[in-house]
Amino acid sequence: MANETIFKRARVDADGPLADLRVRDGAFVSVGPDAGPAEGAAEVDLAGAAVLPAFIESHIHLDKAFLEERRPNLSGTLADAIDITRELKKSVSKEDIRERSERALRLLIRHGTTRLRAQVEVDPIVGLAGMEATLELREACAGLADIQIAVFPQEGIEQQPGTEDLMREAMRMGGDVVGGVPYNDLNAERHLDIVFAMAAEFGCGVDLHLDFSDDPGDDRIESVARRTIEAGLQGRVAVGHLTSLGAMEGGKAARIIETIAGAGIAVMPLPATDLFLGGRGDAPPRFRSFTRVRELIGAGVNVAIASNNIRNAFTPSGRGDLLEIGLLLAHVAHMSGAADRPLIPPLFTHNAAKALGMEESYGIAPGCPADFVVLDSRDWNDIIIDQPEKRYIVRRGKIVLENRRESVWRD
Fold this sequence. Notes:
alpha/beta
């Protein structure tokens, strides 16, 4: 008898009827009203609970998680975050990276994330220890999560000789995309030359930390868009941060957003990090450093959000909870109103799947892997402001984690 479960009475959208989710051998067989009984099938009554596809952390640094416990960033600046992390990396081992990465991954899974792209640092300081640890973790936890790896040169490429060769070796070991950080190197354009050439060599996409600045003159995104089109990488390039876009005057910002849309580049705001590190200048006008989420979405740009870091010099907070990140974005982007709230969950579900090239095997639909999250909420439109518990985390049709939140009134 096939391994079959029917998850009864799920709320899979805001307006439609409740649906029964029939799962066999780890994949959805049918999604619709009243699946009826099936001999030998287990049944789980969701009683109208809201259901979302598996959450996706599209940009996360597992290898740097929890380093704030060793040294916090007291100034809150990007420069100090980079310097502090560089010093701490000198004393980390593969075993240390593996332990902290697994600790972070468990938090992610507990909060509904079972797919992610990890930014793994590769440079002469840490060598390939992060790659080795993440590859071990990917294999050990394959039953719980799908992990993509972006090979990431945090310390730059040219300013850390030997990094390019290490990146190439990391790609051969099992990297999925080539990462980059042009603002932290000797020459940003030469950095991009190397990154895009390596992507062509390995036939993969590109994932950049880009224009992480409050200076409206920082517009490296235009070069990235041009390179993306020339390389035929539309739909396979993602950029994180892009906070300078929020500082630009309206006309320039609109032109650049049109350019991003034309190049098919995915933009990943990272609210917890961007708001902590940015907007700290003394000169007016003072503002919170954040990209133009509303305008990007309105122009048809694929926008996905992520945690970026968990408790380190770049982001001192974080529980690996994308509902929490979604609420933070909703507030800062003026998207917490009733008309905008339904736009937030796609930023860490379907949009993130598209950004990571997972869309063909993702979603609550027949044939897709049965990876989903059952929420303690019956109002789909209010998921973000309710911040409900993630009651069940389901992976390949099996409940791998159950969370309960209980309040006891005492009179």
